[in-house]
Write a structure and sequence with these properties.
Blueprint: E1 2-7, E2 15-20, E3 28-38, H1 40-46, E4 56-57, E5 61-69, E6 81-84, H2 94-97, E7 116-118, E8 124-127, E9 137-141, E10 145-147, H3 163-174, E11 183-186, H4 190-201, E12 207-211, H5 216-223, E13 227-230, H6 235-241, E14 248-253, H7 258-266, E15 268-276, H8 290-296, E16 299-302, H9 310-323, E17 332-336, H10 341-350, E18 355-359
Helix pairs in contact: 3-4, 3-9
Length: 360
Amino acid sequence: MVRAVVLPAVNAPLRIAEIELPEPGPGQVRVRLAAAGVCHSDLSLSNGTLRQPAPAVLGHEGAGTVTAVGPEVATVAPGDQVVLNWAPACGDCHFCGLAEPWLCDRSGAAANVPYATLAADGSALYPGVGTAAFAEETVVPAHAVLPLPAGVPLTDAALLGCAVLTGWGAVHHSARVRAGESVAVYGAGGVGLATLQAARIAGAGPIVAVDVSPEKEELARAAGATEFVLSGDRTAKRVRELTGGHGVDVAVECVGRADTIRTAWSSTRRGGRTTVVGIGGQEQQVTFHALELFYFGRTLSGCVYGNSDPARDLPVIAGHVRSGAFDLGALVTDRIGLEGIPAAFEAMLAGRGGRALIVF
């Protein structure tokens, strides 16, 4: 049996329970988790902002060791260290054919199929985002694991599975930040801190971090921010003042709120680019008037999983980790056990800290 954190129903309290995992079937692997990050998307799944069948075991940012493989698996073997990939591309759909694997039609299929049972009564459990990382072990499709590049600590490698790939991709693929460009990052949580590090590695400057919490300034500056702005009524104006009155070349929104998206847009220069990473609810409506769209000539774009191809990007990021340019540990402000997940959710709601990392 395996200990896991179970979401009984949308908006229900999480609880720790024993679950039964089947042996991996054809095309599946079993992974013993070393660590899992607590992401804001997990909170959104638990409260219904994002869809997830329940009861479920959430968690999608993880790393661990393969303990068993099913038939027809040739890509990994028992003993291999891997990173979970919560959005594995099928390689065959329309978007995969366009070389846009982050938009794959079938990447979320595993989340809708029961994968385990509750030990207490045998009821079926669904894997959160197809990975179910809030557990000591999980069973996932073989294409949902990526070999961990050499030289990256297994525990901190969990962060590569979501926060780092998303932040890195937002900078290098969605916004395509060039050396010398100015960047503002809205939200200094786990993804925001990864985005700041990616902007620093890209050679951006100045790099402005924006957050509602003054306690985030130290974290943001350690990640690469050269300036820090406390979010408020004059946020966009303050960011423009820090860039000669013009506004930043690029703004990356990591919060998912209508007012923050609007502020990020307003803080960019004419012709600037705003990339939205944060996931908001349907009630979050962002408005623009037709004249400003013409006059400012700005670009607003969504960003799914950093517009990343994990198989391509993970080795590149790992190289920066090995060189010391990218500090995975700097994203983590709390190392917890499974029982600490509810408190980590509360901290995210309150805007406290960076990433909470479950260490098994």
